[in-house]
Amino acid sequence: MQRFMLSSILVWLSLAVGACQSALHTEVETALANPQHSGIRWGILIADMDGTELFASRADDRFTPASNTKIVTTMATYHHFDALADDALNPGTRVYLEPAEDGDLPALVLRGGGDAMLQDHPDCQTQCLAALADDVAATGLNDVAALIGDDTLFPFERWGPGWSQEDLQYYFGTAVSALSVNDNLVWLEIRPGPEPGAPAIISWQTGDDYFTLENSVQTTAPEVDRALRVERHPGATTVRVYGTVPASADPIRFGLAVDDPAAIATMRFARLLRARGIEIRTVSTRHRPIGLIDEAPEPEDAVQSTMAKRNRLPDQPIAVLPGAPLPESLKRISKDSQNLHAEIALRRLGLLAGTGSRDFGLAVLSAMADEAQLADAEMTLHGGSGMSIYNRVSPRGMVKLLAFAAQQSWFETWLADQPIGGVDGSLQRRFVGTPLEGKIFAKTGTLNGANALSGVMTAASGRRLLFSIIANDRPPATRSAVPEMDAALVAIAEHY
Predict the structure, then answer these.
(1) Distance between CA atoms of 359 and 350, rounded to whole angstroms?
(2) Between 243 and which of 92, 228, 374, 410 could a Cys-Cys bridge form, CB atoms 3.0 to 4.6 Å apart?
(3) Contacts of 250 (CB under 8 A, 6+ apart)
């Protein structure tokens, strides 16, 4: 009789749990079923903090993760944090004198150290290129044959495979370099002219006059909507701004990507040195073309320790600006979804056992995925930021990685960097007024046709849950799948 009663109870519990799960599936499907957004492909996985799965829908499908890729890059950086803090991998920005072979004046070399936080603004407070110029001037140097911007710490591979050409002119698609300044952007300010019919007034931010400007913007009546476009083709030196701006409009700032960050940085440094009385005859850059040595070996092969011989620094810099602490850049990668910083972080990972190439960085990400016991089909990455349309992950793979990370000593530090729903970062305006406000810590992801969100949320019961939800194949007329995504997560949080 007792066995019969126990069996009956277990059957009843199984049916109750099944009915509860069925109801949740229905509620989630209802939240995602927007008839105006038909065609979107969804994948979801919810799990306890140890990875025990609670809810799944198409969790093994492979999706473009967009900026959820940054989860992997930032986790790998924390996983190797102590090694990356070594001076050889974080040398800072350095200036050397390079003697001329013919006995003429020496050249001055500005060598980038992969510092993503280097700045050059009039109100700069930290990681300022001007501080480096002050130190050079303090040496008494007053005349050099040349200033050379050197970004050879990383090979010259400015963009990754699968980056869309139309993205390369915008702030989120700027080129990558070991010598980067001001996030490798130049800024325009666009203001209406004095009256309707007059040309708009367009100017560069101080020091940003790197490109030629073509102004085809007309001022319209105050009640007319703005219709403004900024265009610069990859490799072009002219920026064309066209359209209309109403007379009542406030100034509009627009960040433009650059193709050769080292050239911009060197130009800015030359201005700073000349302002301090140092004469410079010529300004140029020095890149390291990518080669076979920059290809990471297969895991079963011996890893070549090429970093030391490839990136050995001269012994006597005349000025050094130490690299910014890694946590500052890591927080920007997560909170603000900063693509450049993520790609620089990937290349710094590539210095651990290689040449600072994208491929050596990806080998580190792959090794961590192996450690977390992810199958190859669960995660395939081609960059560190999520810009590549070739990246693929499954929700199950992402949650398995989160569960692995939750067992690491650095996990809570990593989690604190993530956007918080309704509070900050790229989630500041999401989940406001819902049960998840302040209770969801997650990385967003947005790319053409894709939205993603993965991280940790606290359910209504106080239970902490790992989750990954990804939307792909979003129709062109559907600008975002975020409302449906958030509604589904709220339903899941209220259920548990």
Answers:
(1) 7
(2) 228
(3) none
What digits encode the pLDDT tens for the residues 184-214? 999 999 999 999 999 999 999 999 999 999 9
User: Does the predicted TM-score (pTM) go above 0.90?
Assistant: yes
Structure tokens at 2: 């007792």
Q: What is the dihedral of CA 77, 83, 85, 90, to 10 degrees?
A: -90
Cα angle at 405 between 403 and 406, to 5 degrees? 65
**What are the tokens at 175?**
């080129």
| Residues 147-156 as b or e (16 or more Cβ within 10 Å = b) | bbbbbbbbbb
